[in-house]
């Protein structure tokens, strides 16, 4: 006997198949975990991008305003020095396009020059370079030859100018130089050359500084000094220079300067032909004794001897006496001091 239970209803089989298909559709339509994570990350990224775009737009507006202030400051210096503002239209447009579009490029490294970059600008073409680039470039290699052509004469200047490259503009015509040498007597016999001419190799009669004497000397050393007094007539027309041979102009006549009387107490401005007068005051110069003063009136001759009376001791020191200051005092006693031989006395009075 077969105990296995069989379902004789065909509709129940169809219902089971339908239920299995529905379960498969539900499983397929539900999102996978990885897809959910991707969608979540994508949403956050989109939000960040939108925020960045808003910040960039606001910062761009601020940069435009700041750039306008910079351009106004640059052009203000031009107008303050007398320039006309209407002539700056193209300049302003160029600066705006360069700054706002970021098209300023360093011609050495071929990279963008940023607003905060240290720069150097050429004084001729006004091109902008990074400061670090121009410093490194100037150290690593020499400047290129100047391409400009100029019209230049030869070294000696005897030939007509001809067109030469600026970096190689000096040239020699090959003819005799012919320039007057420092001696002012002979000319240079060297071929057309660069720089100063050589010293003259010839000899000639050369006058001294005061022009009163002359002798044969090398033209290369024309300056020499004799040992004689100058003797040139001074500006006063009455006296001659008493200074030894010199090159510079003679000094003014010393007698035309402010002069003092013989005792030095009074000053006079006189002609060099007038004699200095004496004042009526006491001379008061220190006499030769070094102690007393001259009691005579101002005088031209030398002061006399000191007539003051003073007490003086003799050389041996045994006696003293009042005598005139200028006179020495000798007593009548014989000197008993021993001579250098230490055997005999002096015995002089």
**SSE succession:** HHHEEHEEEEEEEE
Overall mean confidence score, pLDDT: 78
Q: Enumerate how many helices there are, as a single number.
A: 4
Helix share bin:
25-40%
Largest sheet: 2 strands, antiparallel
Which descriptor suits the 3D outline? elongated
Spatially, the strands of the biggest sheet line up as 1-2
Percent of sequence in beta strands: 5-15%
**What structural class do helix, strand and pairing data support?**
alpha+beta
Q: How far do the termini sit from each other?
A: 196 Å
Low-confidence blocks of residues: 1-9, 55-60
Work out the number of β strands.
10
Radius of gyration: 57 Å
Describe the overall structure:
- It is a single chain.
- By secondary structure, the chain is an alpha+beta fold.
- It has a domain at 308-349.
- Helix content is 26%, strand content 11%.
- The chain has four helices and ten strands; from the N terminus they run αααββαββββββββ.
- The protein has helices at 10-29, 33-80, 89-101, 131-140, and strands at 119-121, 128-130, 149-152, 162-165, 203-207, 214-218, 259-260, 267-268, 309-313, 320-324.
- A two-stranded antiparallel ribbon has the order 1-2.
- Helix 2 (33-80) packs antiparallel against helix 3 (89-101).
- It is elongated, with a radius of gyration of 57 Å.
- Residues 1-9 and 55-60 have low confidence and may be disordered.
- This is NF-X1-type zinc finger protein NFXL1.
- Residues 8-17 have a biased composition (Polar residues).
Structure in a nutshell:
This protein has 4 helices and 10 strands. With 349 residues, it is an alpha+beta fold.
């Amino acid at each position: 006997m077969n105990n296995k239970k069989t379902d004789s209803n065909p509709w129940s089989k169809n219902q089971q198949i339908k239920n299995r298909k529905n379960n498969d559709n539900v499983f397929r339509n539900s999102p996978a975990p990885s897809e959910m994570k991707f969608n979540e990350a994508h949403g956050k990224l989109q939000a960040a991008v939108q925020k960045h775009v808003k910040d960039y737009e606001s910062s761009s507006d601020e940069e435009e305003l700041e750039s306008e202030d910079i351009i106004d400051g640059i052009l203000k210096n031009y107008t303050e020095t007398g320039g006309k503002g209407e002539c700056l239209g193209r300049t302003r447009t160029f600066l705006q396009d360069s700054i706002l579009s970021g098209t300023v490029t360093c011609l050495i490294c071929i990279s963008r020059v940023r607003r905060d970059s240290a720069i150097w600008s050429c004084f001729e073409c006004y091109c902008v370079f990074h400061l670090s680039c121009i410093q490194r470039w100037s150290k690593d290699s020499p400047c290129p030859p100047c391409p400009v052509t100029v019209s230049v004469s030869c070294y000696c200047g005897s030939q007509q100018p001809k067109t030469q490259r600026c970096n190689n503009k000096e040239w020699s015509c090959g003819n005799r130089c012919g320039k007057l040498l420092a001696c002012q007597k002979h000319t240079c016999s060297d071929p057309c050359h660069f720089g100063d001419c050589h010293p003259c190799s010839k000899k000639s009669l050369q006058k001294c500084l005061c022009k009163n004497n002359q002798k044969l000397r090398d033209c290369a050393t024309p300056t020499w000094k004799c040992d004689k007094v100058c003797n040139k007539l001074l500006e006063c027309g009455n006296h001659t220079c008493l200074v030894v041979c010199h090159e510079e102009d003679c000094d003014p006549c010393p007698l035309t300067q402010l002069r003092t009387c013989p005792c030095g107490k009074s000053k006079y401005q006189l002609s060099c032909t007038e004699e200095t007068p004496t004042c009526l005051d006491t001379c008061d110069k220190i006499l030769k004794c070094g102690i007393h003063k001259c009691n005579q009136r101002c005088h031209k001759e030398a002061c006399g001897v000191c007539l003051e009376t003073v007490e003086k001791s003799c050389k041996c020191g045994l006696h003293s006496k009042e005598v005139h200051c200028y006179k020495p005092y000798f007593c009548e006693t014989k000197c008993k001091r021993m001579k250098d031989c230490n055997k005999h006395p002096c015995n002089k009075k």
